[in-house]
Design brief:
The chain is an alpha/beta fold. About 45% of the residues lie in helices and about 10% in strands. It has two domains: about 80 residues, no CATH class; about 70 residues, BRCT domain (Rossmann fold, 3-Layer(aba) Sandwich). The N terminus is likely disordered.
Length: about 190
């Protein structure tokens, strides 16, 4: 389930405005946090809920560090699919992303204990390291490549390359495909 267009558009517009200069200032982060507090529908659904949760973690100590600002900038770029201005990354319209509409996604809550996960694509929820930590602390294991032992393949909401997707599709792989949104709900 996604946020309605009339809620998502203002959120994405605000996020794009905040990252257009390549820096997220403390005041801008506070503005975004306040906007999400007022616009509860946008903040209750993916990706607004993940942005709100990240902002809550960032401001838990009352201060936003340079590392936290960089992390927030990276998250907002992923959420809006805006490229980094400090790299030679192509514009979003030039990025080649795989068509995942034909994948047999499950909406079932995944089990973690003694299960093998493969993370593919770009994640909006957190860095790849954070996502791996969430799986490990619940008793799961993250694999670098899908194989016959893989239980779940989680596809990041920020897009996935065709090469990444092809590496996960094989006749011997019987893993369950999950969208990032479904995986995130299971973390609660």
């Amino acid at each position: 389930m996604t946020v309605s267009d009339n809620q998502l558009s203002p959120l994405l517009i605000l996020c794009r405005k905040l990252i257009e200069d390549g820096v997220v200032h403390e005041g801008e982060a506070r503005e975004l946090r306040q906007w999400l507090a007022v616009n509860k529908q946008a903040a209750s659904r993916f990706p607004g809920a993940q942005i709100a949760a990240r902002l809550d973690r960032i401001f838990a100590d009352g201060v936003i560090s340079n590392e936290e600002r960089e992390d927030l900038l990276h998250l907002l770029r992923k959420a809006t699919r805006e490229p980094s201005t400090t790299t030679s990354m192509p514009a979003p319209s030039q990025l080649q992303t795989a068509d995942i509409s034909t994948l047999p996604f499950s909406e079932e809550k995944p089990e973690f204990l003694n299960k093998n996960f493969v993370l593919l694509g770009n994640f909006v929820t957190g860095s790849r390291g954070w996502c791996q930590h969430q799986i490990a602390k619940r008793g799961g294991e993250v694999q670098l490549k899908a194989d016959s032992e893989t239980n779940y393949i989680v596809i990041g909401a920020g897009g996935i390359s065709p090469a990444e997707l092809e590496s996960a599709k094989s006749n011997e792989i019987t893993a369950v495909y999950l969208r990032e949104e479904t995986w995130v709900k299971a973390l609660a």
